[in-house]
Amino acid sequence: MIIVFYLIPFLIVISALVDILRNEFNPHQNKVIWVIVVILLPVLGSILYWIIGRGQRVNRY
């Protein structure tokens, strides 16, 4: 049961980092800033990215 409390935040952070690295941002520096935020503030940074950062991505299509 305790492993769930470690696994869920870990998966949230990994999914945010993968999403950041796979997409383009405008301006390009936003990608670096989001990676730093997610690494320094893992759970909070990931939540902030999913709320705020996804709107900063560049549409590819």
TrEMBL record:
The keyword Transmembrane applies. The chain crosses the membrane at residues 32-52. Residues 12-54 form the Cardiolipin synthase N-terminal domain. Pfam families: PLDc_N. GO terms for cellular component: plasma membrane. It comes from the Bacteria. Its main location: membrane. Keywords: Cell membrane, Membrane, Transmembrane, Transmembrane helix. This is Cardiolipin synthase N-terminal domain-containing protein. It is found in: Cell membrane. It is a multi-pass membrane protein.
